[in-house]
Write a structure and sequence with these properties.
Helices cover 54% and strands 0% of the residues. With 90 residues, it is mainly alpha-helical. It has a domain of 62 residues. The protein starts with a helix and ends with a helix.
Length: 90
């Protein structure tokens, strides 16, 4: 990332563009985002590998967004935690 920053501040240009002044900035921006996404992907792979070694469920299984059937979403299934005010009243 330091090299990208150094090239960004360098006093040369590649091809002048009307909006972004030079194609150098567009290319460096794309390269920077690719590096960021690859680092995030490598970190996620490392986390998944560690979870597998500890035999924990994968992230996809843990954060599933599957909807529950409507019959399970009744008010009888929700039990709010007892607060300290409720405990003192009883």
């Amino acid at each position: 990332m330091v090299i990208i920053h150094m090239i960004w501040n360098a006093p040369f240009g590649l091809i002048p563009l009307p909006v972004v002044q030079d194609v150098k900035f567009v290319l460096l921006g794309i390269v920077g985002w690719i590096i960021c996404f690859r680092l995030v992907q490598a970190g996620l792979r490392q986390l998944n590998k560690a979870r597998q070694e500890l035999q924990l469920p994968a992230i996809e299984e843990t954060y599933s967004i599957e909807a529950s059937p409507a019959s399970e979403l009744t008010s009888s299934t929700f039990v709010p935690p007892a607060s300290s005010a409720d405990s003192e009243a009883r």
